[in-house]
Structure prediction request, 390 residues.
Amino acid sequence: MALTYPLTNEAIFTQMVEWRRHFHRYPELSFQEVETPKYIAALLKDLGLDVREQVGGRGVVATLQGAGEGPTIAFRADFDALPIQEENNVAYASENPGVMHACGHDGHAAALLGTAHLLTEMKEELNGKVVFIFQHAEELTPGGAIAMVEDGCLDGVDVIFGAHVSSDLELGLYNVRSGAIMAAADAFSVEIQGKGGHGAKPHTTIDPITAGTSLVNDLQRIVSRRVDPIDQAVVSVCKFQSGNAFNVIPDTVSVAGTVRTFNKETRTQIERDIERIVSGIELTGDVTCSLTYTKGYPTVVNHEKETTIVKEVMKDKVGEAAVIERPPMMGAEDFAYYLENVPGTFIHVGAMTDDPDTQYPHHHPRFNFDERALGNIGTLFVSLAENYLK
Ligand SMILES: [Zn+2]
Ligand SMILES: [Zn+2]
Prediction:
């Protein structure tokens, strides 16, 4: 695969890199973004765009009116960082202790700013509107997307696209797939209340540990026995806490885990199954259980028509071999909320090369990516705007 970035505007590309490094140097946590949205809004105002700030909390939305009438196309970039201490030794490393852009959202914001510049230069040739959605808080549920949608960021929008850099996809490649591509992610926790006592006199206690281990085992039957084998789902118990002495039966057990699904019905069914299993444990273990089931982001479902358009446009632009289709992922993304409201698609853009520094997984303290991916996101967005508005 040739390591090229097709974006031909060298000056804008250089600026994208500068913006990205600025965001990287000053990362802000989800729902605590102050300077990042201010910086973005100022640049968008300089372009003469119609800018709305504090959309759904901390989001920024800018609108570009083309010369003629036509449809409205939206692009979304997120801009929040993660509670991670950066371990990269780069000149633009994070200056905020314990906070790091370790998912590439710094790049998303920079690439969308570059796209806004490129499309503004072309506005006389565009028929319709472009809406640039800069979203806060993607990394933390309930996320910024749902609040921005409620605050009208999609009003009048006909179609929406989003992109994510990917450190496990080669630079130059675009992963474009129709249907469910990222999972719905829910969380559950169960507090089991028994009655503690002496380890030598179990009959005088209500043992929450045996009840808890039964619960963990029973939960394994959901995916293996209740979910259609053709469908995909995960139920993982990731926390089991109890007790602190070898001869004391404790009072309580705390169990928690995650549920990942692609199918809406499966998601609802698993939630009911967990409720049913927990009630069963109360009966068989003589314990009292309190279950909390928290719904996270829904499944990211790419719309077929728009996905096909992206494939055609990009095959034409960067060649057949650069547009690939990978299996769905169990990770989650609140871009799902936009796609529940308007048609569109979410694209993974390759950002990894032979350089080991570009190969760390997302959310790793050494995560970084090849910045030519910014140019590739710009190419993707500008090509789509041309397709819809020219
Ligand atoms: Zn992330
Ligand atoms: Zn991300």
